[in-house]
Every structure is written in structure tokens, then in C-alpha cells.
Amino acid sequence: MSGAKSMAAALSASLPAPVRAKTPQPVQQSNEAKVPQRMEGVLDVEAERDIESVKLNSLVFLKMMKHSTDNLPPPPSASFQQDRNAPPPTALSSHPDATGILLGLDLDGVMEVEDCFALPAGETSLGANSYSSRLVAHLRSVQTPDSAVGIYLSTHNGGFATRAAIDLLISIERITKRGRAVLVIHDQSAAPAGDLSVRAYRLSEGAWEAAKTAKWDTAVLSENKITAANMLSPLPVTISTPSLLNALLATLTAPASTSSSSSVLGEPRSPFPPTFSALTNPLPASLPSYLSDTLDALTLHSHEANNVAYLVRQIGREKAKHEQTIKDREEENLRRRKQGLSELPPVGEMRGGIKDPNRLELLCLQGQVDGLAKGMSAEAGKGLVRCYL
Amino acid sequence: MSLDIGSSAIHLNLPPASSSQVRSPSVINIHPSVLASILTHHSRKPSESSTPRVIGTLMGTRSESGAEVEVRTSFALPHSEDENQIAFDMEFLMEMVDLLNKNGTKEVIVGWYATHSALNAYSAVIQNFFSGETVPYPAVHLTIDTDLSEQGKGLGVKGWVSNQLGLTPKPESCVFLPVPVQLKYADSERAALDMLTSQPTPSPSQPPLPTLAASLSDLSNLIDNALTYVKSVNAGTTQPDAQVGRYLLEGVGRWAGSEGEEGGVKAGLQDTLTVAYLANLVRSQVELSGRLTLLQQGTN
User: Fold this and answer.
1) Its family (chain B) (predicted)?
2) What is A47-245's CATH number?
């Protein structure tokens, strides 16, 4: 099979040079990475232009849908902060969230997402030997765009980005060194009502500043004025369908031209008969699930807040101890001066253990509670509309 | 919901004759994302390659007896073919299957696809190889015809299984038997597909009420149609059709029987209002706590 392998290498070598090779010093590397002529005006070399909207390919769309309906194993229980006890197992935290990476390119301020793949639960970085880098290497040999531009997350009942998702986003932005990563959130529970909920976000300015320093403590938060609500800024989303797929879909939905006219009720030819599922009242079933999800999120949030408070108290205790030590040392020195002995050296810097706790998890959980509550009120609102139609 | 132009073949779904429980599949269910992925792969083929088609692997699940095969994922295989030989990257296949098995979905190789409507000797060779991979079940082959021909027969999606033929068991001699192919998707994906097939594609992050309004107007149109039909039959202008009459009778009967719904709506009203109030309360609480954190640090 060595012939086939070198053929695969030849295939990948015939691609236009991957855009990731672009760095902010194009002068030294101009001979290595050549931008195709037609793309030069549009391709944003130094990533100056911020992304303003997201264009999803319908392939990405369908794959996201499919991943959200897969039977996934429950997520591994990960504890981010130094938990004294594990967080209480709630239905929310054991619900698997389908996560994956988006591949594509950003052109002219529009992030075009061409392909995507699913990630195993528990991956939080795109390091050198991670699942995603190996998969991307394989995809590259079949001419798939190989630059990760963001992640997608499939949540339930209006959730929000989890801590793992934000970590992935940040690591993508670090690795690609250009522009910003995009987070696409798909809400799976709106679908039975006949609606579709796909939203795109990116980290807001303040959040990016905090992420660069990798410290999410209170000083950084207040400096950048980050709350759960403005951590992510939304982006408009459009969907583009390549022409082949468009033709296929058109053939699927077109009514059969040769309908047998003997009976008006011939068998439905098209695979997509119209549905009226939006008209049934789902409230008796869906409201309790919203309520329980919100309660679970509140439980997790309060657990995390307890953790943070414990750490803050710990820090306070350490500080007090340290000051006490300094005072003792001072008194000791005073005593020795009086007795004419040599003075002890001053107490050194306080040792570790005084870092302000990382509040990212708290922020994410707050956002989650907010998102769930928003979903709940939207659902209740829809129910009211149905009652009074 | 067949994806191909109708054929006059009948596909029999016999119960297993022997105890070995391995049968060739009688229907193939495909998820729409697989179709999209195959077509995208085809369009990404570099123009200077010599092969007229692209091939790749299909992964999915099988039912107990192997009669129903569900195709959920696909990925492309780099390959090369010319008049003398055909070759593809087997290590690539193994590694991709390994990686895909790690991401939580339990899928196995079920077959392969090609974007060419012709089945030639190379197809037989590859089919033989894949049958070795999917032992003891037979491998499924899917062809998508990407030449958009004028008669509108383009983009036919056909499924095949192979049977050995001939006096000596050579890999190239087998016959491909057609298997019906159906599109299968979960209910929650229905909305997405509706949106993709409506022209022009609207933005996917719409607020929920327009769909409700659209469904209502559709329903009212359908009721109007049924009403005009019934009126015209009564007036004697249209020939009555017994089947239509029976359907209408059933439908109206079912509807009239479910009158207990009124009480349910009113009883739920109080709950709904309470929930809306609570949701607003929670949201303002969360926002306040977020701001208070910032304030606390500012004064520290």
C-alpha cells in the first residue's frame, strides 16, 4: 500500500497552500505560502477585520442535527475548580452535550463554515496529539478545509456555553492565531415545536482580554466589565447550500409529476409531507422539563458559588495569617534590638495559595441559568399565545 | 419515501429461513447529512485528478437480523484508479474508523459509496474488500449519480448488495442486486429540513412564532380546500370519491371526539403564568448577582 500512501501525499500536496501558514510577517515567508490570485483582495491576511456574520454550509447544518440525535454516552464527570465534594449529580449535568469542531475559512468579514466533525466528550484542547489534530490530518488528505474556526454545541432547553466549550474556543483562537473563533449553539428542544434555533456567538472584547491572560478572577472581571450576559456577543447566521445539494433537495420535495389521477389520495410521493406539529400544545410535557432543568442549573450554580466562597475565605485566612506572621516578626525584631542581638530577616513573600479563584465556571453557570430561564419564559409565552389564539 | 424513481421491482421481506440470522438487507435508511457529505466530497474533488468518481466509506448501525441498515455517517477515502488497477488507502480507512469510534457514537462500517452510476469490475473488487470488513453481514454499496441529466433522472440514489456469481469464486465476478433506499431522519430534524428546502433559505435563528403562524395558515387553507370539495360534491358538480369521503368522515369523527381539551387549556393557564413570572424573577436575579460581583471587586 505504499503506492497508495504516496498518492495520498501527492493529492494533499496539490492543494493550494493551507491558509494557516499565514503569519503577521508575510515578508519572510512569502515564498512559502502563496495566496491564489483571485482571493487576494478578499483574504484577510493579518486578521484585522472582525467577523461580522457566519455563513453555515447546509452540510454542517445537517451534521449538527445528526449529532444531536445520536445516542451519546453520559459525559465524564469533570471537576474544574478544586471541589471539596463532587457537584451533585443532576439531570442537567448528566445530559450529554454534543460538541464538535467547525472547519472553514473567514473571508471578508464573513465566517464561512464548510465542514465539521464531532468531538469525544472530555476533549478540552486542540493540542498536538489530540483527537482533533489527528482527524484533521486525515481530512486534509481528502481536500477538506483544515483550519478550525469554531465549535458547535448542541444544548437542551435554551442552555448556554459550558466551561468546556469556552476552553475549546480559547484554545482554537490561540492555535489559529487569526481572527476569532465562532461558537454555534443549536437548541435541540425547540425542534419538536417546528422551530429551529441556531445562534452564533463569539467572545466579546472583554472576555477575550481575560482569556488572553488565562485568569478569570474578580479583578480581571471587573476591569473588563464581564458579566454572564455580555461574555458572548451574537452574530447573524445565514445558510448557504451548494448547488448539487440544492438540486437533490429540490427533487425530493417536488411533487411527483406523474401522480396517478384515479384517486386524489395517492401515496405521498415526496419524502417531506407537511407537518402540523407546531399546533399541538406541548406545554404539559415541556414546561416541567424546563423547570427541572432550571432547578438543576441553579443547584450547580449554588454549588460552584459555595466553592468560590470557600476559596475566598481560605484566601482571607491565609492573608490574615501572613499579616500575623509579619507582626510577630516585627515584635521579635524589636525585642532583639533592645537586647542587642542580630535581627531576623524580614518575612519573605507570602507563599502560594492566595490566587484569586477562577470564576469562569461561575460565569458559565450563571449564563446557563439565565439561558434556561429565558427559554422557560419563551415557552410559557408561546403557551399563552396558543391559549388566546 | 423512496429516493429513486420508482421501480417495478417488489422487495420481499421474508422471515429468516435459517437459524444463522444473517440476511441480506432489504431496506437501507440514509440520514440526509450523509447525502450532503457525499455530494460535498464529490464537489471537492480536485479537477486534475483522473478518476471520474469519488469513493468513501459508509458507517452506521444494523438491525438485529441485518434486514435494515441505517447509514448515519460517511467519510471519504482517497483512491486512484486507471485502466489497469485501482488502489485506495487502507491505513487511512483503519485510522478513520478508529478515530470515529472514539467520539461516542457506536457505529460500524456498513458499506461504501461511489458517485458514479456505473458499476464496473472495480466496483466488484472494492465490494469484495468491504465485504471482508463487514463480516458476517454483506456490505452495502450506494451509488449517487451526479450527472444532472435532462430527464430529471439525475441524483438518483441507489443501493446495492452483491452476490457471488460464476463458476469459480473470483473477486471480480459478482452481481449487484438493488435494494430500496429511504431517507430517515428524526423528528427534531424535520424543522431543519423544512427550512433547507424552502427557497430562499431564511435565517435559522428565527423567533418561534412565525412557524406557528405558517402552520395555522396552512391548516386553514387545507380546511378551505376540503370544504370546497365537499360543497361541490353536494351540489353535484364533482364526482364523489368513496375513498375521500371515508377519510373525511374519519377525520371529522376523530376531531369531534376530543372535546375534553378545553378544560385542559384553562387549567394550565395558571401554571403557565406562574412559570413566566418565575422565569423573569430568576433572570433578574442572575443579572443582579453578576453585576454585584463586579461592584464588590471595585470597592475592595
Assistant:
1) Belongs to the eIF-3 subunit F family.
2) 3.40.140.10
